[in-house]
Amino acid sequence: MVEVLSPSTMDYDRGGKLKFFKSLPTLRHVAPIYRNQMRVEPFERTDEGWRLHVSTAPEGVLRSDAVDFEIDLDRTRFDAPVRRPILDADEAR
User: Is the pTM of this model over 0.85?
Assistant: First the structure.
């Protein structure tokens, strides 16, 4: 699970919502990603509990063994503007 954090909902996303995600028995990785700074806080479920790996530098890596995924942080874009979806004529009514 990857979640891009919004500054306006960050407290909830990193609090109750993260606690809920961690309670899901089949979830192995959850990675909150900050939208307004280069910071990724991936959690990995281990036999001992949840392990946190914080990355704050371009040479950091976000990886998930559960889905065989890996990306260098310097290939991602932080502080990207959020845009509203464009509605077609039927949806706008």
Answer: no
- Considering only CA atoms, which of 62, 25, 64, 60 is closest in space to residue 44? 64
- 8-62 pLDDT, tens digit per residue, is 888 999 999 999 999 999 999 999 988 878 888 999 999 999 999 898 887 888 8
Q: Which two tokens stand for residue 67?
A: 């889905």
Quickly tell me which residue has 């900050």 as its tokens: 34
Beta bridge partners of 69: 64
Q: Among 3, 55, 65, which Cα is nearest to 28's?
A: 65
Beta-strand (E) ranges in the chain?
Answer: 2-5, 29-34, 43-46, 49-52, 61-64, 69-72
> Is the alpha carbon torsion for 60, 31, 6, 83 positive or negative?
positive
81-to-37, 47, 77 alpha-carbon distances in Å: 12, 38, 10
